[in-house]
Amino acid sequence: MFRVRVICSVMIMLFAGKSMAQNTVGNFRVSKISVNSEGNEYAPVFQNGKLLFTSDSRERLGVYFSSTDSLSRLSGIFRADYLNDTTFSKPELIDNRLNRCYNSGPAWINQNGDQLYFSSNEKSAFFFFTSKKKSKLQLYESRLVKGKWSKRNKLPFCEKTNNYTHPYLNAAADTLYFASDRAGGFGGFDLYYSVRQNDTWSAPVNLGNAVNSAKNELFPCFNGTGLVFSSDRESGFGKLDLYEWAGNQLLHKDFPFNTPQDDFAFVPVDENKGYFSSNRTGNDEIYFYRELFPDFKDCEPYVKDPFCYTFFEEADELDEELALEYVWSFGDGNTAKGKEARHCFEAYGEYLVELNIVDRTTSQVFFNQTTYPFAIERSNRIHIEGPDTIPPVIEIPFTAENSTIEGYEIEHFYWDLDHGKWRVSDSGQIHLSVTEEGTHSLTMGVVARALDGSGQKKFCVTKSIVVQQGANIPVPAESPSIQSWETSVKTSDNQYTLFLGLSDTLVPVSSINNKDSLRIQSVGDSLYLYSMGTSNQKNELLEDYRAAQEMGFSNSRVTELKDGSLVQKDQLVHTPVVEIEKILDNRIRKEQIITSFEVFYDFDVFSLTKSNQQEIKVLALNHRSSANKRILISSFTDVKGKSEYNLKLSKKRSLAVRDELLKNGFPAAQIEMEYYGKRVPKNMEPLSDAKRRKSLIIVYEEN
User: Fold this and answer.
1) What number of other Cβ atoms are within 10 A of residue 150's Cβ?
2) Interhelix angle 643-663/610-623, nearest 10 degrees
3) CB-based contact 189:119 (threshold 8 Å)
4) How far apart are the C-alpha atoms of 184 and 166, rounded to whole Å?
5) Cα separations (Å) of 179 from 44, 63, 190?
6) What are the CA-CA distances from residue 25 to residues 229, 237, 256, 289 (Å)?
7) How confident is the model at residue 73 (pLDDT cuts 50, 70, 90)?
8) Is 301 strand, coil or helix?
9) Mean model confidence pLDDT for the chain
10) Which is nearest to 391 in space by CA: 434, 443, 428, 357?
């Protein structure tokens, strides 16, 4: 007769874990973890930074069975916080109410951490005096409510006459897998599943003889590629071994996962690491495994991003007699002539591509046919940057640091250039060398973590590397590959005008010949676009364009006009500022000037003094009777204050002079005004503030 000793309150003991020795076998490193004790620890579950596991450690539970010939301890469900892959905080019972005076565990918890499924002995009215061997294992569910686990509820399909244990809940939380020795199986324990339907569970379904055998199948779990479970069937190394059913094929896991002892409860964390249980050194213990170099399969050939493109224009041929030609500008300092051009860029980046009609007589742009940004971006994939040909022996730098995979964050880079001799790099940079000459295959793989939390995934590419004596050692860079880029530019129905240039000074209309056709378009507070004339055919403006070039408007060009506004305004504002006032000032030759004098002002003043009024009166009386005499008024301010205010102030000064001339009978049609604000024309020497506050009055004779 069994004698039961029960300590009713759970004893909290100091935890003293075993040393965590590491063992590297082939491509795996296996380590014991810190929660292992003098008892048995097994069936780990890792969710949300916590490890759940089952333990019968006397140090933790303080509960055990004893008899005259053996000592049999009760098991309970524990949890511990993650510190690193092999180190966890001090374990504690998940909840005292779920770990009463009967066995609890193994368990599985959902991804949200609020649904717990576990196996436990059926509670008997005489449980204090009944051997646990006579109490079958049943499956229970508990919910986390306001930080506490609810009373356990037995799942409806469990039968008291059979055992139900080793639960595994899928990620969607709608299918529960488990092991049972219920009737109708293939022998021993079989694996089953049940589907959640309307908040209850369906009748169990056997997974079939592809998985189950006449022996015992236990501890089901999915690893992303198939079903992993343990079985003591005869094809293993002995006792419980780990198997995987994937792709309609049953695979027996090799060492270090399987040994002649019990190996079971395999739980992956991601594609290359996880936990499992084994009694290979005595008691049941939990082990952490990590794949040092993932098994990269079916790697795609590496294809470089395109750097070379073909551009072409579908417009009509240009009239040869006009001395015009198409010229492409690629934004990297290179140009090409013709309607069609092929160009190879040297690096990633954004380029401003232009197709211009250029005047061969001046080499200046006559008309901009089209302008658009052209981006060469790294594609969203693995990138290998490095030479295709390298010398033997010498280590050559390669990098994959510019690799990006949509929806993933790359964690580790793996390189192989010598047939299975893998090297790992967390930065993506590495130096590789090969001794033998010839063509070698470089494999580069990455392990990336999904941003949606669904786990890790492997990606890989291969490329050929030629190793030959005398090869140069180049700087790592991607060589251009070729791709066609076709752009079709349609002829616009808009009108055309002659753009003269950009100025930061507002030049008065009256100072320009053909002023009736002059167009001034402001951009912001201090930039002005000047254009002149209108035509339905851009070639009709060619003569005016060449005349403007001769006058000094070096940035002039024909451009499109729509509703009175320049279509390419945003591009034209980036042309160099033209000295429009200087060009216009040159229209008055020295021999034309009859007289001139200056009127000075106090700070922030535009009214004339009595002395100034008298000088202007004399000037008007002396020259008002001559029809070919003109007066040009140019006013300025000092550099203090805002540009917009000073421009208005200089205009008021010019108006004050003009009004005085008109009052004394000088014809309005023969008066021209300019107002510069605080800006000084290029042909004027720098002056002090006091000497800048003035109006310059020039009387000249018109030809």
Assistant:
1) 15
2) 60
3) no
4) 19
5) 16, 26, 6
6) 22, 17, 6, 10
7) low
8) strand
9) 81
10) 434
296-338 pLDDT tens trace: 888 999 988 888 999 987 777 888 888 899 999 999 889 999 9
pLDDT at 646: 85
Task: Write out the two tokens for 113.
Answer: 């951490």
**Helices (DSSP H) in 495-604: which residue ranges?**
542-551, 569-572, 580-585
Cα–Cα distance for residue pair 274/257, rounded to 1 Å: 11
Query: Domains of the chain, with CATH numbers?
Result: 3-291 (2.120.10.30), 294-491 (2.60.40.10), 495-560 (3.30.70), 590-701 (3.30.1330.60)
- 99 contact partners, CB below 8 Å, separation of at least 6: 10, 61, 76, 77, 93
**Residue length of the chain:** 703
> Going by DSSP bridges, is the β-strand pair 438-450/629-635 parallel, antiparallel, or unpaired?
unpaired
Task: Centre a 10 Å sphere on the Cβ of residue 348 and count the other Cβ atoms it contains.
Answer: 13
- Cα–Cα separations (whole angstroms), residue 327 to 88, 115, 339: 69, 70, 8
Sign of CA dihedral 425, 430, 435, 441: positive
Question: Which among 195, 123, 206 has a CA at the least distance from the CA of 160?
Answer: 123
* Structural tokens at position 30: 């296996």
Contact 552, 512 (CB under 8 A): no
Q: Among 576, 521, 573, which Cα is nearest to 552's?
A: 576
Helix (H) or strand (E) holding 614: helix 610-623
Q: Shortest CA distance to 634 belongs to which of 454, 505, 486?
A: 505
C-alpha to C-alpha distance for 189 and 175, rounded to whole angstroms: 19
Query: Smallest Cα–Cα separation from 634: which of 592, 588, 598?
Result: 598
Q: Is the pLDDT of residue 12 over 50?
A: no
Whether the Cβ atoms of residue 215 and residue 233 lie closer than 8 Å to each other: yes
CB contact at 8 A, 700 and 590: no
Residue carrying the six token digits 């008024």: 633
Place of tokens 């005489």: 126
